[in-house]
Amino acid sequence: ASAQEIDKTYIIGTDITFAPFEYKDAEGDYKGIDVDLLDAIAKDQGFNYELRPLGFSAALQALETNQVDGMIAGMSITPERQESFDFSEPYFESGVVMAVSKSNDDITSYEDLEGKTVAIKVGTTGAAFAQSIQEEYGFEVNTFEDSANMYEDVQTGNSDAAFEDYPVMAYAIQSGLELKIPTDPEPGDNYGFAVNKEQNAELLEMFNNGLINIRANGTYDDIINSYLGDTT
Ligand code: GLN
């Protein structure tokens, strides 16, 4: 890397409430799997960065307009996004899932969404999936900017269901959120670090190289296990 690249501080956009990938702790600091992975990779590769918790759709827009250099936000690698962004190698497997209130025994399948209201989060693959089945199953949607408010709308009964990433919804429920998951997740989703198309190629390369190194030296597993427990 050139001296200029070494001095550069990369601005990285992220989500605001997306535990265990990024969330604010009691001290007001951001922590989570994405936060720790980025930090470990930056240390391994020797680059400087500044994390900007903007919210998911705001971070997407910031990346598209080059206001940030990269994005790590439990962001799914999709063919549509690959037209606008360049992604790293996948670093975590995910999938969209439906969640309903813990006390709701009426919704056990997508068919039961007929005439109901579904909460979705702007710009996400969960929102895209809900919209792709909306006509078939006949429901209304309420849109939210962040996951916490989306869950809240289901908890209060204003919405009947929400669509969210499985690892995030399962973690929230385990942490005490009064929702449940009545169906299997939609498979085939993977998280990647993203840069704007054909921008910051050196940053993307460092991310990929660092990811290989932290997988090899055990840091990756330590980070995952510190949030999700050793399930292997
Ligand atoms: N994985 C989902 C997506 O990429 C949700 C990400 C998020 O809400 N932070 O759209």
Tell me about this structure.
This protein is of the alpha/beta class and 232 residues long. It has two domains: 3-93 and 190-228, Periplasmic binding protein-like II (D-Maltodextrin-Binding Protein, domain 2, 3-Layer(aba) Sandwich), CATH 3.40.190; 96-180, Periplasmic binding protein-like II (D-Maltodextrin-Binding Protein, domain 2), CATH 3.40.190.10. The chain has helices spanning 3-7, 33-45, 56-64, 125-137, 147-155, 166-174, 201-216, 219-228; strands at 9-14, 23-24, 30-31, 48-53, 70-71, 85-87, 92-94, 96-101, 117-121, 140-144, 161-165, 179-180, 189-191, 194-196. The strands form five sheets. Strands 10-9-11-8-12 form a five-stranded mixed sheet, with helices on both faces. The protein has a three-stranded parallel sheet with strand order 4-1-5. A two-stranded antiparallel sheet has the order 2-3. Helix 2 crosses helix 7 and helix 2 packs antiparallel against helix 8. The chain is globular. The model has no long low-confidence stretch (mean pLDDT 96). Bound molecules: glutamine.
What is the helix fraction of residues, given as a range? Answer: 25-40%
| Strand-pairing-aware structural class | alpha/beta
- Report the sheet-strand fraction: 15-25%
CATH architecture heading of the largest domain: 3-Layer(aba) Sandwich
Name every ligand kind in the structure.
glutamine
Q: Give the count of helical stretches.
A: 8
Report how far apart the termini are: 37 Å
Total domain count: 2
* SSE succession: HEEEHEHEEEEEHEHEHEEEHH
Across the major sheet, the strand order is 10-9-11-8-12
Shape: globular
**CATH fold description of the largest domain:** D-Maltodextrin-Binding Protein, domain 2
Poorly predicted ranges:
none
Radius of gyration: 18 Å
Largest sheet: 5 strands, mixed
Q: Care to count the β-strands?
A: 14
The CATH homologous superfamily of the largest domain is named Periplasmic binding protein-like II
